[in-house]
Design brief:
Elements (H helix, E strand, L loop, with lengths): L5 H34 L5 E8 L2 H18 L14 E7 L3 H13 L1 E7 H6 L10 E6 L17 E8 H12 L8 H41 L10 H11 L7 H13 L5 H22 L11 H12 L10 H13 L5
Parallel strand pairs: 2-5
Antiparallel strand pairs: 1-2, 3-4, 4-5
Helix pairs in contact: 5-6, 6-7, 9-10
Length: about 350
């Protein structure tokens, strides 16, 4: 029952918090699972985390932010109704362009109570610094709030902070910087410069991603319509253009591609056209070897595209690419090759 008696309402909130804590914790975990399932397919997400706000921290927030105004207006209150971030989630994406898109998807999936764009709020003020991200207050909505596994969480609102990795890093550092308001101008300028560098890093990261996508697309088109120049060295983009068509549907993870191309180049200079020629000349024979060894349940997927390409390179030049296979792989393949030479 709402009142203007802070001591009564403080005790009521403590009782509510203690009684409901386990349910609130379960709700937090459920909301993380729901959001993860919604976003996982379409976005590069670094992390989705959550926390239940500490009881005394919640009371302190209410005292600082709401108590005076409510009592001045003689507006009765229950403290729990004013702690909008009792359940707080954080979605950390890789790219700045995804922040707004993630917000739109969450707005479709949940009931939106309030949206606070702290990025625009900060960027609109010359003297302000910090890089906070986008905050969205949400609740479950139909049909999810009627589902048996979620219905007991239907009354809980929760705050989702949507940030990029760079924004998240700056926020952590920003909280550690003391005396940000009443400090000498030179120090304030240095903090503003630091904040600007973080913002620039975010934009450059996104720009590099866009140029990477463009370069990959251009290499695929080049592979279809033209022969690469003789002095062009194999790179991750030309590798993906060739290998992507060869192993359609296989997901080549960037960090593995980067390492594999670097390894190929460690054996000597090779152009995309030379790499493609090696594949064209040797791939079908390695395919026969792959079929001959089969895949037992314990060896399932052991002969993946990287392994197959290693065998292709080794077959093309056993001296140059001698170390591209493990000893056991090389010996087994060499034995088979004696009885199954390439038909001329």
């Amino acid at each position: 029952m709402a009142s203007l008696d802070f001591e009564v309402e403080k005790n009521n909130f403590r009782e509510f918090y203690n009684e409901k804590y386990e349910t609130i914790e379960s709700a937090k975990n459920a909301f993380i699972a729901i959001i993860n399932s919604i976003l996982a397919e379409d976005f590069a997400i670094s992390a989705i985390t959550g926390r239940v706000k500490d009881r005394d921290e919640s009371l302190k927030k209410f005292t600082l932010k709401y108590q005076s105004k409510l009592e001045e207006n003689k507006e009765e209150y229950e403290i729990k109704d004013h702690i909008t971030d009792l359940i707080g989630l954080r979605v950390v994406s890789l790219y700045e362009s995804d922040v707004e898109k993630i917000k739109d998807i969450l707005a479709d999936e949940f009931e939106v109570i309030e949206i606070t764009d702290k990025i625009k709020d900060i960027e609109s003020k010359e003297s302000s610094f910090g890089y906070k991200g986008l905050h969205v207050d949400l609740k479950l909505k139909d049909p999810r709030d009627k589902m048996r596994e979620y219905s007991r969480y239907s009354d809980f609102r929760f705050e989702v902070q949507i940030r990029t990795i760079i924004q998240d890093a700056w926020s952590v550092l920003d909280h550690k910087i003391k005396y940000k308001k009443s400090i000498p101008l030179p120090l304030k300028r240095r903090i503003n410069t630091l904040a600007a560098l973080f913002e620039l890093a975010d934009r450059e990261f996104f720009s590099i991603r866009e140029k990477t996508i463009k370069a990959t697309r251009e290499e695929k088109e080049k592979a279809k319509i033209a022969t690469p120049s003789a002095d062009e060295v194999l790179n991750v983009f030309s590798f993906l253009a060739i290998a992507g068509d060869l192993f359609e549907g296989y997901e080549f993870h960037s960090y593995k591609v980067d390492g594999f191309v670097s390894e190929i180049l460690s054996y000597g200079f090779i152009t995309p056209s030379e790499f493609k020629s090696i594949i064209d000349s040797n791939f079908s024979h390695v395919e026969k070897y792959k079929e001959s060894i089969g895949e037992t349940p314990t060896r399932k997927h052991a002969f993946n595209p990287y392994t197959e390409l290693r065998h292709v390179l080794y077959q093309s030049d056993t001296n140059k690419y001698q170390r591209v296979l493990y000893n056991s792989q090389r010996n087994k393949f060499s034995e088979w090759f004696k009885d199954n030479p390439v038909e001329k």
